[in-house]
Amino acid sequence: MVEFFLVANTSDEVTYKMVNADLNEVIGNITVNKKTKDYKLDYAEEMTTHYESATYKFILGAIERDNYPKFAFDGWC
Questions:
Q1: Per-residue pLDDT of the chain (77 residues; tens, 9 = 90+)
Q2: pLDDT for residue 77
Q3: Per its UniProt entry, which superkingdom is the organism in (predicted)?
Q4: Region of residue 62 (phi > 0: left; psi between -120 and 50: alpha; otherwise: beta)
Q5: CA distance 58 to 74
Q6: 3-state secondary structure string, the chain?
């Protein structure tokens, strides 16, 4: 399971911290530009895991709804 924690939200971009809840390990931060939908990871050049893609999809939905929860998750509880 991946957990998302809101780190920053500006008019141009939003950043969430990703945590692997199964191992209780911080994965890193992903920042998404609200206009272009481009993303930046603070620890890699591109996405390689389900945790990253799930967080990116979550952020795209948040941008579409203009609603940025402080916490959310994807996976089994």
A1: 999 999 999 999 999 999 999 999 999 999 999 999 999 999 999 999 999 999 999 999 999 999 999 999 997 65
A2: 54
A3: Bacteria
A4: alpha
A5: 9
A6: CEEEEEEEECCCEEEEEEEECCCCEEEEEEEEECCCCCEEECCCCCCCCHHHHHHHHHHHHHHHHCCCCCEEEECCC
Length in residues, the chain: 77
63, burial (CB in 10 Å: exposed 0-12, middle 13-18, buried 19+): middle
Tokens of 9: 């939200």
Q: Which tokens hold the place of 18?
A: 């990703």
